[in-house]
Amino acid sequence: MSESAGTITDTHLLLLRTFSDSRAAWPIADGQLAQLTLDLVQQASHYRQLKKGANEGAFVQKQLVVNGETNCLSPTATKTLNRGTSEILILAADTSPLAILLHLPLLAEDKNVPYVYVPSKVALGRACGVSRAVIAASITTNESSDLMPQIRELKNKVERLMI
């Protein structure tokens, strides 16, 4: 199904609402890049190269449960960044409150790991293969994986988006 030029889709509305609600969620993937990102997340989940959650202490764990997002699974996106095994970090732009994620972009920049926000935590959860919303996911390193060319391509696109 193709969309005619000039039509506003639900994804566009979500992107606009997310941008107006929180300018801290940057860079946000557009529709095509978001779909490519979520497809790669789904493949990484099948290859066991995906870590879900944003665990940073008991407060965040409690906050995640209260807001209905996924409980922190171990190892989490934070742990993969600290260990140097993260290739790319994917965050949900509609996280509420967004402050529970804001330590991750800083950590990713310190570790030279590209990161991108996708519009929906529910879509990220589905791509991760879980029935709950997921606010952060990390695709991990595995040089012998069949996914490495796709991961490199996504990293390049995200890095261009960040410029």
TrEMBL record:
- Xref: PROSITE patterns: RIBOSOMAL_L7AE (PS01082)
Keyword set includes Ribonucleoprotein: yes
Residues in Ribosomal protein eL8/eL30/eS12/Gadd45 domain copies: 77-146
Q: What does UniProt give as GO cellular component?
A: box H/ACA snoRNP complex
Grouped into one coarse class, the protein's main location is nucleus
Q: Where in the cell is it found?
A: Nucleus, Nucleolus
Keywords noted in UniProt: Nucleus, Ribonucleoprotein, RNA-binding
Single Gene Ontology MF annotation: RNA binding
**Which is a GO BP term held by this UniProt record?**
mRNA splicing, via spliceosome
Matching Gene3D superfamilies: 3.30.1330.30
- Superkingdom of origin: Eukaryota
A Pfam family found in this protein is Ribosomal_L7Ae
Q: Which family does it belong to?
A: Belongs to the eukaryotic ribosomal protein eL8 family.
**Annotated function:** Common component of the spliceosome and rRNA processing machinery. Required for ribosome biogenesis. Part of a complex which catalyzes pseudouridylation of rRNA. This involves the isomerization of uridine such that the ribose is subsequently attached to C5, instead of the normal N1. Pseudouridine ('psi') residues may serve to stabilize the conformation of rRNAs.
Q: What is this protein called?
A: H/ACA ribonucleoprotein complex subunit 2
Q: Which organism is it from?
A: Knufia peltigerae
Supply the source organism's classification.
Eukaryota, Fungi, Dikarya, Ascomycota, Pezizomycotina
Which gene holds the coding sequence for this protein? SNU13
